[in-house]
Amino acid sequence: MDDRIELTAPLPGNALAAVITFKAARPGRDKTVPRADATHAELEVTGLDGKTRTRRVELAEADAFLREAAAIHERDRAFSVANAGRRERATAERAERSASVVPRCLYCDVPREHQGRRDLMSLGVADQLARTDDLGRARPESRPYEEYACPRCGSVELFRAGVLDHPLGG
Questions:
Q1: Whether the predicted pLDDT of 129 surpasses 70
Q2: In Å, how far from its chain's centre is CA 46?
Q3: pTM of the model as a whole
């Protein structure tokens, strides 16, 4: 094992970084040595506040810190792998849903063409429009939609943006 081990987050105590340096007691001052020759260790931890704190620890405490850091990294890796699998499945399901929707004109029975994303403005709830004295309180909202138009008759079909992958096949 090395005489110095540098660790990165996630770490015990929500530390951002840590360095464990193995030391041997020598007259006058400690000397950095390999783990096998060490009598103690120096644990340098950088916290969330960005401050670095250094303290002398026993070898057992340094080893426990390393084991806990390894366990945290393993849990983090397992979570990342599982999360990547969930994302891949969700992406595949979304692509499958998008592929199954074919926008066709109800009148001409031809495929509609994707015209792009449109932001439609509204004044909010209908109650606001009925009260002319309160019209100043209306807060306009913008909502994105994907527009598909029939090349023959010009009729339009809207899809709420973000639900399916656009443009759809057809």
A1: no
A2: 24
A3: 0.58
Residue 62's contacts (CB-CB under 8 Å, 6 or more residues apart) are 20, 22, 41, 43
Q: What is the pLDDT of residue 134?
A: 61
Report which secondary-structure segment, H or E, holds 141. Answer: strand 141-149
**Cα–Cα dist 13/80, whole Å:** 20
The stretch 94-103 carries a mean pLDDT of 87
The single-letter code of the amino acid at 88 is E
Q: Mean of the pLDDT values across residues 110-114? A: 93
Quote the strand ranges of 38-136, DSSP E: 40-46, 52-57, 113-122
**Could you tell me whether strands 52-57 and 113-122 are parallel, antiparallel, or unpaired per DSSP bridges?**
unpaired
HSE-up (13 A, CA, CB side) for residue 3: 10
